[in-house]
């Protein structure tokens, strides 16, 4: 069974300029339920994560300032969100969603989080709408519990996974692969184990060919035994922040490529949702929904 972590949203408490991108977390599960892709039993609502797992990844000083709402104004601005207790609680719950998804991935081959992909959170700071790094926390959990030895992070958001790269820069058991827009945020990139920087207006054909070749090479050389997939849909040509020219069908084929490789190689995979900022809300929902539709098609 496809198990999906879903954290309740807080759209109404945000300023108006933040509500649009956040509302997808409420609309997407309703769409998937309405069309019959999932049923209520596919969804689970995680509780907040234990603090010890946050401290395994993030600096204690940063976590203290975050949970006590004592970040400086500059640090708050860098995150992109107004800092509230509600926001921190939601973030902490999202972290546990991805961690718990690892259990379901071992059982069923795949599990997904309708949130997460918070790849701009560093060990000691948050930025780019990311306070804590769910992929890094869950990966460190697996390493500590000796449930995985070679973890691959496939980050296909249009923005480089700079926080994840920084967290695992000295960890050979985690291979960070980021394929992103060369001229997009962040201005200063970190060094992943493999970075593919794409030119503006990269189209479906070049994108998919590049991804396929590099993923196959990583699978052959690194031989992962667990995968985290950051499946942001801000690569779409319609995305107001993306700068690439990937179609909705191209984005779907991207997801098919990743999920099929994991499935055929019998490698457990957890997908986190990542970004998506197309002006037409339907483009965001349809592109994200395709990831879940493909998971059901390929695995179940």
Textual characterization of the structure:
Keywords: Hydrolase. Residues 18-280 form the Histone deacetylase domain. It comes from Chryseosolibacter indicus. This protein is globular. It starts with a strand and ends with a helix. Helix 6 (85-108) packs across helix 7 (134-144). The chain has an 8-stranded parallel beta sheet with strand order 2-1-3-8-7-4-5-6, with helices on both faces. It is 45% helix and 13% strand. The chain has one domain: Histone deacetylase domain (Arginase, Chain A). The model has no long low-confidence stretch (mean pLDDT 95). The chain contains 11 helices and 8 strands. The longest helix has 24 residues, at 85-108. Strand 7, helix 10 (248-264) and strand 8 form a beta-alpha-beta unit. It has helices spanning 16-22, 24-35, 51-55, 60-67, 73-79, 85-108, 134-144, 162-167, 204-222, 248-264, 281-299; strands spanning 3-6, 43-44, 110-114, 151-155, 174-181, 194-198, 226-230, 269-272. With 300 residues, the chain is of the alpha/beta class.
């Amino acid at each position: 069974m496809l198990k999906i972590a879903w954290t309740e949203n807080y759209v109404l408490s945000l300023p108006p300029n933040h509500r649009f991108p956040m509302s997808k977390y409420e609309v997407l599960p309703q769409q998937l339920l309405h069309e019959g892709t999932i049923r209520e039993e596919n969804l689970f609502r995680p509780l907040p994560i234990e603090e010890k797992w946050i401290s395994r990844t993030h600096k204690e000083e940063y976590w203290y300032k975050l949970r006590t709402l004592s970040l400086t104004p500059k640090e708050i601005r860098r995150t992109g969100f107004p800092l509230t207790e509600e926001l921190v609680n939601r973030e902490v719950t999202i972290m546990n969603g991805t961690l718990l998804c690892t259990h379901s991935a071992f059982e069923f081959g795949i599990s997904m989080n309708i949130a997460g992909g918070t790849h701009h959170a560093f060990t000691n700071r948050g930025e780019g709408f990311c306070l804590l790094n769910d992929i890094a926390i869950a990966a460190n959990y697996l390493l500590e519990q000796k449930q995985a030895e070679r973890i691959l992070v496939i980050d296909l958001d249009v923005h480089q996974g700079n926080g994840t790269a920084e967290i695992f820069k000295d960890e050979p058991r985690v291979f960070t692969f980021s394929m992103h827009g060369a001229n997009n945020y962040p201005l200063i990139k970190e060094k992943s184990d493999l970075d593919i920087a794409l030119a503006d207006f990269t189209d479906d054909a070049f994108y998919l060919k590049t991804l396929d070749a590099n993923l196959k090479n990583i699978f052959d050389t690194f031989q992962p035994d667990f995968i985290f997939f950051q499946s942001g849909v801000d690569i779409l040509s319609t995305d107001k922040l993306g700068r690439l020219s990937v179609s909705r069908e191209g984005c779907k084929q991207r997801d098919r490529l990743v999920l099929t490789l994991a499935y055929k190689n019998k490698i457990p995979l957890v997908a986190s949702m990542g970004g998506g900022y197309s002006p037409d809300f339907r483009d965001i929902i349809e592109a994200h929904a395709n990831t879940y539709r493909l998971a059901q098609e390929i695995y179940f």
